[in-house]
Write a structure and sequence with these properties.
Layout (H helix, E strand, L loop, with lengths): L1 E13 L10 E17 L3 E6 L2 E6 L12 H11 L11 H6 L2 E8 L9 H14 L7 H12 L9 H8 L2 E4 L3 E2 L8 E5 L6 H14 L1 H23 L3 H17 L5 H10 L3 E7 L6 E6 L7 H4 L5 E5 L7 E5 L2
Parallel strand pairs: 3-5
Antiparallel strand pairs: 1-2, 1-12, 2-5, 2-6, 3-4, 6-7, 8-10, 8-11, 9-10
This protein binds (3R)-3-hydroxy-3-methyl-5-(phosphonooxy)pentanoic acid.
(3R)-3-hydroxy-3-methyl-5-(phosphonooxy)pentanoic acid binds next to helix 5 and helix 6.
Length: 327
């Protein structure tokens, strides 16, 4: 049997970094997906195939023994095989004597390491796919386990990314409230093509906080207030205010020093066609998002430097999706 699950990538519209320190955030799932296929094998190994390479380790290996990008898959495979979540009945044990390994294959169209949720979508899809060999988990179970898997790479994760990859749509975090009936958001994603490291950026923000607790706390209050205003703007179909709030949020991100000259250059290039532009995700590279009027979408590539990529994003409403193929 093949257990297949896919999950969408994401953008953070408002609240990245501050959400790690307890503020609200608004995120949306996007129409780029990762698909994870899991099968039992007879090899007593965990084999992971991805764009980043292939590993094959003995079934008893700990996730700490493998390179960080493979850790969540080894962690999840171990968790299934040791049955710590009691998803299989001991009556299945004879099956394990014969089929005692796992092969996990990842196919993704989410760019890696640029803040579009590739790692979270992998954790969500892998949880649903690997556990799906025995049991169809509920969304709540997938979310809980996938956050634990993501913590094997990034222990301080806010959990916001896995949440939107699991449920899809646009959500307010942390209360996981779906935001419906919003005006037609024309979101442009522009990739700086500079990979970033979320852990390093989050540590940098922690240092900023340590150096100036009062200002950081004020910025958190401002972020929460801004998100309340964005929710009202969406209820009023007010894209102008929505765009202005994106640019205001960017100022807070500049202040906590997760921007750089390349990102500032891209934001400034897109200014003439956008209602608002900001970093999405950890910053220090990665992507910027812009709210652009439909008629101006085609102009974006001509405004950006030639070495940058851009595309328009549609909001994914499905979240994680699972299926099985009997062989
Ligand atoms: O760039 P990404 O996709 O790794 O997003 C990180 C978002 C942060 O707020 C910086 C961290 C988090 O866990 O929320």
């Amino acid at each position: 049997m093949k257990s297949i699950a896919s999950a969408p990538g994401k953008i953070i519209l408002f609240g990245e970094h501050f959400v790690v320190h307890g503020t609200k955030a608004i995120l949306a799932a996007i129409d780029k997906r990762v698909t994870v296929t899991s099968t039992f094998t007879e090899n007593k190994t965990i084999k992971v195939n991805s764009q980043l390479g292939t590993i094959e380790v003995p079934i008893s290996s700990s996730h700490e023994e493998v390179k960080s990008e493979f850790r969540p898959f080894v962690y999840l495979a171990n968790r299934l095989m040791t049955n710590s979540d009691k998803v299989w009945h001991p009556g299945n044990f004879h099956f394990f004597n014969r089929c005692s390994g796992l092969e996990i294959t990842i196919d993704s169209d989410i760019p890696i390491g640029v803040g579009l949720g590739s790692s979270s979508a992998c954790c969500v899809a892998a949880t649903a796919s690997i556990f799906g060999l025995f049991k169809e988990l509920s969304s709540e179970e997938i979310l809980k386990i996938s956050i634990e898997a993501e913590k094997t790479i990034f222990p301080d994760t806010s959990g916001a990314d896995c949440t939107v990859c699991t449920y899809g749509g646009m959500i307010e975090y942390p209360n996981i409230k779906k935001i419906d009936n919003i005006f037609d958001l024309n979101l442009l994603i522009a990739n700086s093509m500079i990979p970033h490291n979320t852990k390093n950026s989050v540590e940098k923000v922690n240092k900023f906080k340590e150096n100036d607790e009062d200002r950081f706390s004020k910025l958190c209050d401002l972020e929460n207030g801004l998100i309340d205003e964005v929710i009202i703007a969406m209820k009023n179909n007010d894209s102008t205010t929505f765009g202005l709030k994106m640019s205001e949020n960017q100022k807070y991100l500049e202040e906590i020093q997760v921007s750089n000259d390349t990102l500032r250059g891209m934001i400034s290039s897109l200014k003439e066609i956008s209602l608002g532009t900001k970093i999405t995700g950890a910053g220090d590279g990665g992507c910027v998002i812009a709210l652009v009027k439909d008629e101006n979408m085609d102009k974006a590539p001509t405004l950006l430097p030639k070495d940058k990529e851009c595309f328009s994003a549609k909001i994914d409403t499905k979240g994680v999706v699972r299926s099985t193929i009997e062989e």
